[in-house]
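ok trying this again, last paste got cut off
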Amino acid sequence: MSDANDYRIQMGEAGTSDARPMKREQRAARNGRAKALVSAASAVRALKATVGAGDVIARVPSLAAPRQWLPTASFTVCRKTGTATYLDIWDADHFDGYTDTQKCVADCRAWFSADGYSFWDAPQTKTGRINCYFQAPTAGNYVCTVQLQSDNGPARVECLIDAFNYGPLPFNGAKTQPHPAMLSAGYHSFRIRQQSGAFFFIGLTVWKV
């Protein structure tokens, strides 16, 4: 597995979105004012600690100014706020007495297993997927700050904004990772794909910067 220091931050460039939502998006529940799951100052520190941050901040100086960050949407397993529209979770795992569904929902997180548990007939797949579908009210620069927690050792995922892939993200323990992107006004998908190791999805906060 790649070392966490191999991960290099990039400015994502998402595809053009349709600013006119389909009927089912128009029917989506309104989630009130966006509430950040992590402070802007903490997200800026995490961004600055990532390799390549200097180049990205040189392009978008507001990335280093947390007071300018405005929460747009947030996602957890049990709540969506702001313009968060859909949270799709595929191939999450349930192991009774450890990370069963009721416990995960109570803790507002989802668990994705990997190796192990073969005695209990676990398929040991790495097929967990998360899709956070939200609206960017205006075109501009945004930051999608994901919060993850590896389980019993290192894990690795890849994150995407629409079709733009930020590349493999390794982590061991709690991880807060900002993903800056230039977005058009309209609907976008921030996606997380499991590659190796077991982990918890804690949440995602989308900021306008």
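PB: full thing came through this time. The chain has one domain: 32-137+145-204.
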